[in-house]
């Protein structure tokens, strides 16, 4: 007898399947902790912030120009007395009334600046002219559109800038086109709270705020073992063989759920490779990042010991070997290594022969069925809650609808699933014989969201991912479902 992870005894001989809801709850309770660690920005993508993100610098860091043009002081016209480039040295003098400095976008404005007069609003005047009556209007290039044009214009007028000659006139508003220090983000301001996911935009924001490292929750590492003598990972399978369809989708699902993909290996059938991979190691054994094994040696026990035996991965996913057939040895191996079985079978279709166990050293083992859609169902039930932990949220609820008889197939090139419901689509009615429910087990059904609800897309046999590829969610149909709104489990995008 064993516990089911919730304190109840489970009798393997009688099946002992827990409900789908219970299995998900057990996985959530078993989710590993995510200690905080400081990592460089290059390694933070996909992690969650362990501390709020605060600005180490103000943005902008000083008063800067928001336009290419002239920083002016006082009333015009203004005599051009210098120039300031972005990244260059600031103008050394306080800008006096009647003075102007030619300035680039992002360059610091001189002290005393009233506003920035953009090129397109400025009128150049002859050198030596100081009155509007002597102005010689001059068409100026639009430097805000193209950097190449801007660079040429700066170069063309370099001699004039060095001499400090020329005059400009135009209409300005006080403070116009000047970005003040801290206008976007103040020094020390919190911009993101703890728990925020580090996206590419967050990385850019952190860099702009002066960060070289971030304190994040470490993503749990997940090792993947694909078992089966019949499984091949490339080419056209011979009779009696099948292509591995689980190994290719698991890394993306793991990353999407917040994990980090570790070693991914293929094992032959039999207990010895599993025993070697799952056996506990001596205390103090550590391992660094582990590369994938060379082609042709991915089933040898020494390679397994090197790749997995040292215990870097917090979660080990075993694909196949979780059922009770003659080639399914996972349960027996877990018994041998003293694992605590938390879930041994779930009342769900597809995917009932799924398993969750804790090894003596604390690592978790998730057993997935060998059929691809059944494996996806089990991964969404056990693996995703383990990886998300306290961040996990139940899916939205929606009404399940069915395509009417008038629904048509989508045409090639259409943004489509399998069939589109017409305006005559209806909800499933209580007691309707076409209701895709099971009297005792939960069903996970591939659906596509629509304006009228969630529409089953079909092709949901355990061995095929066709329906899942057409869908954007799996609908959770409880036992005896009678038409009420159901939970939708998002699929990785």
Topology:
Layout: E1 2-3, E2 9-10, E3 18-19, H1 20-30, E4 36-40, E5 48-49, E6 53-54, E7 64-65, E8 69-72, E9 78-84, E10 99-103, E11 115-118, E12 123-125, H2 147-156, H3 158-163, E13 167-169, E14 178-179, E15 190-192, H4 200-208, E16 213-217, E17 221-227, E18 231-232, E19 242-243, H5 246-257, E20 260-267, H6 271-278, H7 301-309, E21 315-319, H8 330-336, E22 340-344, E23 346-349, E24 355-358, E25 364-368, H9 372-388, E26 397-398, E27 401-402, E28 408-409, E29 419-420, E30 426-427, E31 442-450, E32 453-456, H10 466-470, E33 473-477, E34 486-490
Parallel strand pairs: 3-23, 9-10, 17-20, 17-21, 18-19, 21-25, 23-31
Antiparallel strand pairs: 1-2, 4-16, 5-16, 6-15, 7-14, 8-10, 8-11, 9-13, 12-13, 22-24, 24-25, 26-34, 27-30, 28-29, 31-32, 31-33, 33-34
Helix pairs in contact: 1-9, 5-9, 6-7, 6-8
Radius of gyration: 33 Å
Q: What's the count of strands?
A: 34
Silhouette: elongated
Hey, roughly how much beta strand do the residues contain?
A: 25-35%
Helix coverage percent: 10-25%
Number of helices: 10
Mean pLDDT: 78
How would you characterize the largest beta sheet? Answer: 7 strands, mixed
N- to C-terminal separation?
40 Å
Judged by helices, strands and strand pairing, the structural class is alpha+beta
List low-pLDDT spans: 1-15, 128-163, 282-309, 405-425
């Amino acid at each position: 007898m064993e516990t089911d992870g919730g304190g109840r005894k489970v009798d393997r001989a009688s099946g002992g399947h827990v409900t789908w809801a219970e299995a998900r709850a057990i996985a959530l309770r078993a989710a590993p902790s995510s200690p905080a660690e400081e990592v460089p920005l290059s390694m933070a993508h996909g992690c969650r912030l362990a501390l709020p993100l605060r600005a180490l610098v103000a943005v902008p860091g000083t008063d800067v120009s928001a336009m290419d043009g002239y920083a002016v002081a006082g009333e015009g016209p203004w005599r051009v007395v210098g120039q300031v480039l972005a990244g260059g040295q600031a103008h050394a003098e306080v800008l006096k009334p009647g003075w102007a400095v030619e300035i680039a976008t992002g360059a610091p404005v001189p002290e005393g600046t009233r506003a920035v007069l953009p090129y397109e609003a400025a009128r150049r005047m002859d050198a030596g002219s100081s009155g509007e009556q002597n102005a010689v209007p001059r068409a100026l290039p639009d430097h805000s559109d193209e950097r190449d044009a801007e660079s040429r214009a700066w170069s063309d007028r370099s001699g004039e800038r060095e001499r400090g000659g020329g005059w400009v006139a135009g209409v300005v508003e006080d403070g116009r086109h000047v970005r003040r220090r801290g206008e976007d983000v103040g020094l020390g301001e919190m911009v993101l709270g703890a728990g925020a996911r580090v996206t590419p935009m967050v990385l850019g924001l952190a860099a702009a705020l002066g960060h070289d490292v971030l304190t994040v929750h470490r993503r749990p590492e997940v090792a993947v073992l694909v078992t089966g003598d019949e499984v091949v990972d490339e080419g056209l399978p011979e009779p009696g063989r099948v292509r591995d369809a689980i190994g290719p989708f698991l890394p993306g699902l793991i990353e999407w759920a917040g994990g980090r993909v570790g070693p991914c290996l293929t094992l032959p059938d039999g207990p010895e490779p599993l025993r070697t991979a799952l056996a506990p190691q001596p205390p103090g054994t550590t391992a660094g990042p582990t590369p994938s094994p060379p082609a042709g040696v991915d089933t040898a026990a020494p390679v397994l010991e090197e790749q997995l035996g040292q215990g870097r991965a917090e979660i080990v996913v075993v694909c196949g070997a979780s059922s009770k057939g003659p080639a399914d040895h996972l349960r027996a191996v877990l018994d041998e290594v003293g694992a605590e079985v938390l879930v041994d079978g779930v009342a769900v279709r597809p995917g009932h022969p799924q398993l969750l166990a804790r090894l003596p050293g604390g690592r978790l083992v998730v057993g997935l069925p060998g059929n691809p859609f059944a494996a996806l169902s089990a991964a969404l039930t056990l693996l995703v809650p383990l990886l998300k932990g306290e961040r996990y949220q139940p899916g939205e609820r929606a009404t399940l609808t069915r395509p009417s008889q008038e629904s048509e197939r989508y045409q090639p090139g259409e943004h489509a699933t399998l069939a589109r419901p017409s305006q005559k689509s209806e909800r499933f009615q209580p007691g309707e014989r076409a209701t895709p429910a099971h009297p005792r087990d939960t069903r996970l059904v591939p659906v596509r969201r629509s304006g009228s609800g969630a529409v089953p897309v079909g092709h949901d046999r355990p061995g095929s991912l066709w329906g899942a590829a057409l869908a954007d969610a799996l609908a959770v149909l409880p036992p005896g479902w009678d038409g009420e709104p159901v939970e939708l489990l998002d699929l990785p995008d």
